[in-house]
Write a structure and sequence with these properties.
This protein is of the alpha+beta class. The protein has a domain of 50 residues. 37% of the residues lie in helices and 13% in strands. Strands 1-3-2 form a three-stranded antiparallel β-sheet. The relative contact order is 0.15.
């Protein structure tokens, strides 16, 4: 099956720095997601790249994730200390 005329067969890839700018996340956050396996990397000549499709998946997956509720305070409230 031949591709349609004008379609691009090569998917855009980004360095971690470029992906951070695109997603408005810090580079540290992206490196952490890569390390945890939540974001897949593409290695080319020992350099790390992130495919555009991976960034799209990251954005759509995190939109559907429920936010964790803040931790509840336990125990009774402390009494004020008189001086």
């Amino acid at each position: 099956m031949e591709p349609e005329a004008g379609t691009n067969l090569i998917e855009p890839i980004f360095t971690v720095k470029e992906a951070a700018k695109q997603t408005r996340l810090s580079e540290w956050t992206l490196w952490d997601l890569l390390r945890k396996g939540k974001l897949l990397r593409t290695k080319v000549a020992a350099r790390t790249f992130i495919r555009e499709s991976e960034l799209r998946k990251l954005i759509t997956d995190t939109r559907n994730e429920p936010r964790p509720s803040p931790p509840r305070k336990r125990g009774r409230p402390r009494k004020a200390v008189r001086q």
